[in-house]
């Protein structure tokens, strides 16, 4: 009984009402606590108040005030009972108020129960129940109640339409939203500001940006909500430049921005990777005092991470005591995309150890990082983790696993993932084709392609990039050429990468004149990659004049790319034109360019050990060089003759021979041999193209040591075993 006293503090007269409980409907009577029977208020009391002119009592205000003070469900049930016994259960105003309060207290089912028991609800009561579902993000029920409202013949108002449009936006129910738009016009609310803003949000969130812009352009009074909706629409649907253009228009009107709109603006700058302008927005939000807004911190983390400033991104990440999955994703993907693969993997493992729930984006970013690390042991760990998770049948995750295994040097494991992936789409097939191409298995790539056609899957442009690459690395010139022509059958317009692959296909095989004619007759302007591929082929086949022409084109298109000058220098060195080599070096110094330092790394017990040419920094340096001397002796005994052109300097024979034996890949092989058990496969990664001499030497070392040695260089994988390489010396 004491719980009722706060509800009736405004009544000074002694009250009771148990005698009226029998008149309650059974559904309501069950809700009334037993203690209520001891507290009786006869309705005659309120009737006498109503008849007494001295009181002039406003019952609606009285009960509305009581309803507004309710704080517990037991108060709700008691008040509902009081409304019934007092004869006010048919008051639409009070029941509307009651439904709203029930909703605010979180008693959604009770609010719906009261609504359903009210006969002939008006638009305000309908809005109250629709509002209930809207505020609790139960958007399917919002649409359901709106349809029922229409069936009952109740005319909606602007508030109804605003809430229903919000539900359609959240559900991405464009067709339903368009139907509601028609109703809006029919009822004459098309010029209402609330409704117009809701329409902009609907079309923007559903990806119909042009329709959203049309509604936006027709707005008479554009509020911050209007601008936010249209800018967010462009930013989240792949048009960041347009989002920023409209934001600039808004700023010219001196409208005050809020954190919601700045989230979209930061996303736009993140997408176009304009970190400098993003920093200016960061400064703006600091001035506005919004730097601690959680959603903005997430956006800032993503922006700095993607922009390459991972240290700043990590400072924002560490600001959160318990970062959410979006923040973890931003940081892990930022590390992975900016060359911090090991940090990305470490952060992912930390996330797992803290039992933080991952999503598909998290997992794919971590797999991408594993691909960059190149560790097969790490790749196996990742595969095991996926196999125990809910993502084992996720097609996007499996596609990433195929790519990971291929890049970590084991195409057979990639094929295992491919074979167990159900419902393969074109992306899965293409990933496997590209995987075979990376390992120089062009025929296997073509076989997969034919199986793909038989399965009824239509190839895309990436499929043909993989096929052409595989043919390049395998010397399948005619197959590659026919596949290039086949692209037209699928309506695929060749891109720059396809044209470069054809030039590579012809150039590697020695058809340099044919490659040049192909370039001249291309329907698009030859790019850096096309001329670069031709220059590389000229170096292999020692075509100086054509190589010089290709280099001229490269210098005009990309004058500060060190690689072009190095390629031309290597071409001159291969034909012993040392004076031209010297001129190129002078030219590079004048331009402030320096050659990229080559290095190789080998994975031992899950740890990567890097080496550069002549490296003596490793703790086991003495053992490594002793092994090198031993290997060099055994190579000579086996009849190995060094390939002198691999040292592109004007050195004498003895200096050349010594330099060749100290190349980074040779150091990595030596360390691997002294650090692993006999028969263990060695896996080495080199950041540049492997030199011809080391390639020949490692073939023989693999045979002498009875090892399989896998080397991943800048272009492809080489599998050395029993004195031969998987590339069959065609690289």
Describe the structure.
The protein is 63% helix and 4% strand. By secondary structure, it is mainly α. α13 runs parallel beside α15. The N terminus is likely disordered. It contains 38 helices and 6 strands. A 6-stranded mixed sheet has the order 2-1-3-4-5-6, with helices on one face.
- Which sequence of strands runs across the widest sheet? 2-1-3-4-5-6
Q: What does the average pLDDT come to?
A: 86
DSSP strand content: under 5%
Determine the N-to-C terminus distance.
91 Å
Poorly predicted ranges: 1-24, 31-51, 649-657
What is the share of helical residues? 55-70%
**Structural class of the helices, strands and pairings?**
mainly alpha
In short:
This protein is mostly helical. It has 38 helices and 6 strands.
């Amino acid at each position: 009984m004491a719980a009722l006293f706060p509800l009736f503090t405004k009544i000074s007269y002694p009250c009771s009402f148990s005698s009226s409980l029998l008149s309650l409907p059974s559904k309501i009577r069950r809700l009334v606590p037993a203690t209520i029977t001891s507290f009786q208020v006869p309705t005659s009391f309120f009737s006498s108040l109503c008849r007494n002119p001295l009181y002039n009592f406003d019952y609606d205000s009285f009960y509305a005030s009581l309803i507004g003070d309710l704080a517990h469900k037991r108060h709700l049930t008691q008040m509902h009972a009081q409304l019934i016994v007092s004869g006010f259960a048919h008051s639409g105003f009070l029941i509307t108020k009651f439904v709203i309060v029930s909703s605010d207290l979180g008693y959604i089912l009770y609010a719906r129960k009261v609504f359903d028991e009210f006969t002939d609800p008006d638009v305000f009561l309908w809005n109250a129940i629709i509002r209930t579902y809207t505020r609790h993000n139960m958007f399917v029920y919002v649409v359901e109640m709106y349809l029922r409202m229409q069936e009952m013949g109740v005319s909606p108002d602007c508030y109804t339409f605003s809430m229903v449009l919000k539900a359609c936006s959240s559900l991405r129910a464009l067709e339903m939203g368009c139907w509601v738009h028609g109703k809006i016009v029919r009822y004459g609310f098309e010029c209402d500001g609330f409704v117009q803003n809701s329409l902009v949000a609907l079309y923007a969130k559903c990806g119909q940006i042009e329709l959203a812009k049309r509604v936006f352009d027709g707005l008479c009074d554009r509020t911050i909500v209007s601008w936010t909706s249209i800018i967010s629409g462009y930013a989240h649907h792949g048009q960041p430049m347009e989002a920023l253009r409209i934001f600039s228009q808004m700023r010219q009107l001196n409208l005050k921005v809020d954190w919601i709109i700045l989230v979209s603006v930061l996303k736009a700058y993140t997408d176009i990777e304009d970190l400098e302008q993003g920093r200016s927005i960061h400064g703006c939000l600091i001035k506005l005092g919004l730097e601690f807004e959680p959603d903005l911190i997430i956006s800032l983390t993503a922006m700095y991470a993607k922009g390459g400033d991972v240290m700043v991104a990590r400072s924002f990440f560490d600001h959160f005591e318990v970062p959410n999955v979006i923040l973890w994703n931003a940081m892990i993907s930022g590390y992975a995309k900016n060359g911090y693969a090991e940090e990305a993997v470490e952060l992912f493992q930390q996330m797992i150890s803290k039992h933080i729930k991952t999503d598909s984006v998290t997992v794919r970013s971590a797999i991408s990082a594993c691909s960059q690390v190149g560790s097969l042991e790490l790749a196996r760990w990742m595969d095991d983790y996926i196999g125990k998770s809910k993502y084992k049948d996720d097609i996007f995750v499996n596609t990433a696993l195929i790519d990971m295994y291929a890049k970590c040097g084991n195409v057979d494991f990639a094929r295992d993932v491919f074979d167990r992936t159900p419902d393969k789409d074109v992306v899965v097939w293409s990933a496997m084709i590209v995987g075979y191409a990376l390992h120089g298995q062009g025929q296997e790539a073509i076989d997969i392609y034919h199986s793909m056609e038989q399965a009824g899957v239509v190839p895309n442009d990436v499929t043909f990039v993989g096929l052409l690459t595989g043919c390049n690395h395998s010397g399948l010139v005619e197959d590659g050429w026919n596949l290039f022509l086949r692209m037209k059958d699928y309506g695929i317009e060749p891109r720059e990468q396809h044209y470069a692959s054809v030039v590579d296909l012809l150039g590697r095989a020695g058809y340099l004149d044919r490659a040049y004619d192909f370039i001249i007759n291309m329907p698009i302007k030859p790019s850096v990659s096309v001329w670069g591929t031709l220059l590389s082929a000229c170096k292999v086949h020692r075509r100086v004049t054509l190589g010089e022409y290709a280099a001229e084109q490269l210098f005009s298109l990309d004058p500060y790319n060190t690689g072009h000058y190095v390629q031309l220098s290597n071409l001159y060195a291969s034909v012993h034109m040392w004076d031209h080599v010297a001129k190129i070096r002078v030219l590079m110094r004048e331009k402030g360019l320096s050659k990229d330092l080559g290095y190789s790394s080998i994975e031992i017990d899950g740890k990567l050990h890097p080496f550069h040419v002549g490296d003596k920094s490793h703790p086991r340096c003495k053992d490594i060089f002793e092994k090198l001397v031993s290997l060099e002796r055994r190579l000579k005994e086996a009849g190995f003759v060094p390939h002198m052109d691999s040292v592109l300097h004007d050195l004498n024979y003895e200096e050349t021979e010594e330099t060749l034996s100290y190349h980074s890949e040779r150091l990595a092989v030596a360390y691997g041999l002294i650090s692993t058990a006999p028969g263990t496969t060695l896996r080495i990664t080199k950041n540049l193209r492997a030199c011809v001499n080391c390639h020949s030497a490692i073939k023989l070392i693999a045979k002498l040591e009875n090892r399989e040695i896998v080397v991943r260089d800048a272009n492809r994988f080489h599998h050395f075993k029993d004195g031969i390489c998987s590339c069959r010396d065609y690289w």
